[in-house]
Amino acid sequence: MLNLKMYINGEWKDSHNKEKRNVVNPANGEVFAQSVEGTVEDAKEAIEAAKAAFNSCVWSELPAEERASYLFKVADKIDENAEELTRFETMDNGKTLREAGFDVADAAACFRYYAGLITKPDGQTYHVSDPVQAMVVREPVGVCGLIVPWNYPLLMSVWKIAPALAAGNTIVFKPSEVTPLTPTKLFEIFEEVELPKGVANMVLGAGPTVGNEIAESHDVDLVSFTGGTQTGKHIMRAATGNVKKISLELGGKSPNIIFADADFETAVDYALFGIYAGAGQVCSSGSRILVEESIYDQFVNRFAERAKQINVGPGNESNSEMGPLVSQEHMEKVLNYIKIGKEEGARLVCGGERITKDGLNKGYFVEPTAFADVKPDMRIVQEEIFGPVVVIQKFKDEKEAIHLSNDTDYGLAGAVFTVDGAKALRVIKKLRAGITWINTYHPTYNEAPWGGYKQSGIGRGLGTYGLDEFQEIKQININLQVEPIGWFSK
Ligand code: NDP
């Protein structure tokens, strides 16, 4: 049995109250680890350590090249431990080894990207009236609170930790209580590369206690959160006390628009990938497929036929194409949405049940599910289900496709499938969403900004924008003619 502890000021710690929480493998319901259940006192201690480390300038005043060299070492260690990290991610989250393998490789690449970026030129100078020279420099924000969900336990952590550390901040990080395993391994790597004490701190425990303390504390200068929209709203309110900088990456209900002229089999294939990759537990999942009227029936039939062939099973089995949901609680939430869809009168075209055959009864497996003939105001069309459940809507023309696509509170992602390049761009430009694709779904790059419009969030992760989130901008005005201004009489 693994024992997971918090990492505060360079030491592995139990919580103040010595309580523990079971960590469960969602493929079989077995407890494989225990993690300490952090308290508000633990969060305060971690914040104190991060504050002291920031004030000591042990990290923020290191030359960028030296900070970068730590991050490069972390990336190398992630690669060295890739096999174990991949296996652990599958055990904790349930995703397939193939999916977890991509996440681990991306995590190393993300550290390398920010290690490289921080050593590149970043200032500006302005030609203002004489005798002043104006310039801009970037500085770290201070103590950054980073809170992440369970769907990409390692990668979501790295998307925040890498730019925050690159920029010279110190951090207090909280993974989801459901998936603390690979984040803990990442902090073991921080210890191995001898990151200075107090620079990176990890607290384990529940959102409403530990997470809330990070969001409320006056000693935390910024909170960067990825998770559900309701929690994001709470974080916004909690952050008002000291007017923290905030960045929020929240939920989605993203449209995947398929025109009649699209390459049919390509569109079906990506539509399956868009919703069932990660068992639909992906913020940018294409959870609303919108299909042009003339191919609607043909599309629904072919999609359902393909969805039924997906091999669902434990993530660590090589022939599994889709793993279980992350927890029993989450599986019940998803099954309840399927029930709601049936009650709302949507037509179930595939799936709809928990899978209990072939020894899967102890895990949290749900069939790839699709509803057709849905109405725009149905809950299954408007609300984020975050599981392998998709709704397939019908549209008449371009105008209606755009209207339906934008007709939710969310605005995270969206895609268009058509061979007409001008139409694709016209539609994409009208989508109120931050991440878009044409004739593909899901590719994500460390170089490109990630984030949403509307209630899908505030700010952007990744790319140069992701570094901006963790930096303050300071203007410096230098008087080049040092003599009295003579404004007031002597
Ligand atoms: P939650 O919002 O429930 O939790 C996210 C994190 O916030 C967890 O660490 C959680 O802690 C913590 N938390 C919960 N309550 C509070 C609180 N009151 N104060 C501070 N922290 C709190 O989301 P899920 O973990 O269920 O993740 C799924 C959601 O994340 C989906 O809506 C998904 O769309 C979104 N997401 C968005 C992404 C994006 O890039 N836009 C990417 C990935 C996911 P704990 O659970 O440990 O108690």
Topology:
Blueprint lengths: L1 E3 L1 E3 L2 E3 L6 E6 L4 E7 L3 H17 L7 H17 L1 H12 L3 H21 L6 E3 L5 E9 L2 E5 L5 H14 L3 E5 L6 H12 L7 E3 L4 H10 L5 E5 L2 H10 L6 E5 L5 E4 L5 H13 L11 E5 L3 H13 L19 H17 L2 E4 L18 E4 L6 H4 L6 E7 L2 H8 L7 E5 L3 H10 L4 E4 L18 E2 L4 H6 L2 E9 L11
Parallel strand pairs: 1-5, 8-9, 8-11, 9-10, 11-12, 13-14, 13-18, 14-17, 16-17, 18-19
Antiparallel strand pairs: 2-3, 4-5, 6-7, 7-21, 12-20, 15-16
This protein binds NADPH dihydro-nicotinamide-adenine-dinucleotide phosphate.
The site of NADPH dihydro-nicotinamide-adenine-dinucleotide phosphate has 31 residues, from helix 7 and helix 8.
Features:
seven-stranded mixed β-sheet; 490 residues; six-stranded mixed β-sheet; single chain; 38% helix; binds NADPH dihydro-nicotinamide-adenine-dinucleotide phosphate; Aldehyde Dehydrogenase, Chain A, domain 1; alpha/beta
What does this structure look like?
The protein is an alpha/beta fold and about 500 residues long. It folds into two domains: about 1-250 and about 455-475, Aldehyde Dehydrogenase, Chain A, domain 1, CATH 3.40.605; about 255-440, Aldehyde Dehydrogenase, Chain A, domain 2. Helix content is about 40%, strand content about 20%. Helix 9 (about 265-275) packs across helix 10. It starts with a strand and ends in an 11-residue tail after the last strand. The chain binds NADPH dihydro-nicotinamide-adenine-dinucleotide phosphate.
Query: What is the count of β-strands?
Result: 21
Described by strand count, sense and barrel closure, the largest sheet is: 7 strands, mixed
Backbone CA Rg: 24 Å
CATH topology of the largest domain: Aldehyde Dehydrogenase, Chain A, domain 1
